[in-house]
Design goal:
CATH topology: Rossmann fold
Bound molecules: 4'-phosphopantetheine
CATH architecture: 3-Layer(aba) Sandwich
Strand order of the largest sheet: 3-2-1-4-5
CATH class: Alpha Beta
Structural class: alpha/beta
Order of helices and strands: EHEHEHEHEHH
CATH superfamily: HUPs
Number of domains: 1
Helix content: 40-55%
Radius of gyration: 15 Å
Number of helices: 6
Distance between the termini: 49 Å
Strand content: 15-25%
Length: about 160
């Protein structure tokens, strides 16, 4: 059984993330989406809210689950008996950081590989940060997110500005 971890902040999960999750689920027997809790950026959604959103959007993918983690990604990968880390590459600007992360992880854990999937061109421009920027000023985010997630993001900003 080949298990892959797809780690990230997912604050919130976008259609670009979903595309990577769906394609990974066709390559691996089991995919665990790992939601980082202790990130330097202060997230809009709590880790449990982000896990719940991921569970909802991946409900139709039986071999995908979502879990939060703290600390080193490599420890989470090992705890879950996974052997591959999946990351999406949108553009060359992602490459330097992603390469550094992958090489660092490979030195710490030589038995674990990182697999890069190129983002679907439809979503190559998309990031959680830019979606939040649009939502913060009341813009339409429906082209970027699952409808349920878009509602939660809009509600979050509505409650913040109240
Ligand atoms: O979606 P993001 O924020 O680009 O995801 C970054 C993530 C979660 C993959 C990365 O920050 C991470 O793996 N953090 C856990 C700590 C760690 O293991 N860092 C790598 C060694 S420097």
């Amino acid at each position: 059984m080949k298990t892959a971890i797809y780690p990230g902040s997912f604050d919130p999960v976008t259609l670009g993330h979903y595309d990577i999750i769906e394609r990974s689920s066709q390559i691996f027997d089991r995919v665990i989406v790992g939601v980082l809790k202790n990130h330097a950026k202060s997230p809009l959604f709590s880790a449990s809210e982000r896990v719940k959103m991921l569970e909802d959007v991946t409900a139709g993918l039986p071999n995908v689950e979502a879990r939060s983690f703290n600390g080193l990604l490599i420890d989470f990968v090992r705890q879950n008996k996974a052997s591959v880390i999946v990351r999406g590459l949108r553009a060359i600007t992602d490459f330097e950081y992603e390469l550094q992360l992958a090489q660092m992880n490979r030195v710490i854990a030589p038995e674990i590989d990182t697999l890069f999937l190129t983002t679907n061109l439809k979503y190559a421009y998309l990031s959680s940060s830019t979606v939040k920027e649009v939502a913060r000023y009341g813009g339409d985010i429906s082209a970027f997110l699952d409808p349920g997630v878009a509602k939660l993001v809009a509600a979050k900003y509505a409650s913040v500005s109240r």
